[in-house]
Amino acid sequence: MTDLHAGWYLLAFTSAITEELTPVTVGDRRLMIVRSEGADGPAFQVADSTCPHRGANLAIGGSVRGNCVVCPFHGRLIRVGTHPTRPSVQAYDTVHIGELLFVRFGDDELGDNGFPDAIRRLTTGREIRPAVDRAVDVPVEFVVENAFDIEHFPTVHGVPSLQGMVTVRAADGTLSIGGDFMTMADPWYDLRYRKAAADYLGGSGSRAAHRSAFRAVAFSPTVVATSFGSGTGDPIILTGALPTPDGTQVRVAVIGDAGQPLDYIVDGSRLAISQDCVVWANLDPDATWDLGPEDVNVVAFRDFVAHFPLAPARRRQGARV
């Protein structure tokens, strides 16, 4: 059985959820997204999809009736959310903001890290644009690790230099890294035009003189918010990595204000993930690592992953005969 952590996952972009019931698998946990219409627009619940009677997948062929799902195998009504006497499936905490649907498998405050309040602060009054939704063949932790792997930025993405990159574990349980990107212009320009700008990146004696403050905050091993800029109000690049039976689903959204170059950042985010995918597709995740002092930020992230609380086992109902 795949271990899932107790923190938040970016489960889906809601524009892709058009049916009453949508099956989804996180690790080896079969789930369903239940979509309903309310006065303020669509609402979503996330729950286990395995019928407690005989194991049918409620999300495939089932139908919604009130707060229950009609099982496609025997027609029984299965309550969404645990119930003391009626057949039911466990429902999970969710956060739905615009296009973003998050789910958490922890109990109470386990693995929460203040994420619901933080993501609302980051998105209130701002535009949310999905940028990336693609499957990658790499273990899930490698995706968010990229924000803490400072050596890969110059090599893979062509960032001329970095300064003062330091990782800190906060009292709220999040892990952050901060420092400066030194580029010729803004970092998204350097990223998009890397192949055509060898001279621009220093080949003709030019020096990287544009300082962009870089900050990334990992709320869990699979959700990280990254920003480049000089203060509050900078655009946010939100990256989520979802474990699937076939690998990892990477989702990236850009969060920003009217008047900011969001199309530009969306394009840069897509290019960045494409560049990462070339490495990920040819990576041996089981290779022995030979780490040194320059890997201190990666080590900090991997320690964060290793000690992040795990989700409780899925509630199972015993057989009744």
Automatic annotation (TrEMBL):
SUPFAM superfamilies, per database record: ISP domain
Chief location bin: membrane
Keywords, comma-separated and alphabetical: 2Fe-2S, Iron, Iron-sulfur, Membrane, Metal-binding, Oxidoreductase, Transmembrane, Transmembrane helix
The name this protein goes by in its record: Rieske domain-containing protein
Rieske domain: residues covered: 8-103
Source species of the chain: Nostocoides vanveenii
InterPro entries noted in UniProt: ARHD_Rieske_2Fe_2S, Cholesterol_7-desaturase, Rieske_2Fe-2S, Rieske_2Fe-2S_sf
Lineage, uppermost ranks: Bacteria, Bacillati, Actinomycetota, Actinomycetes, Micrococcales
Subcellular location field: Membrane
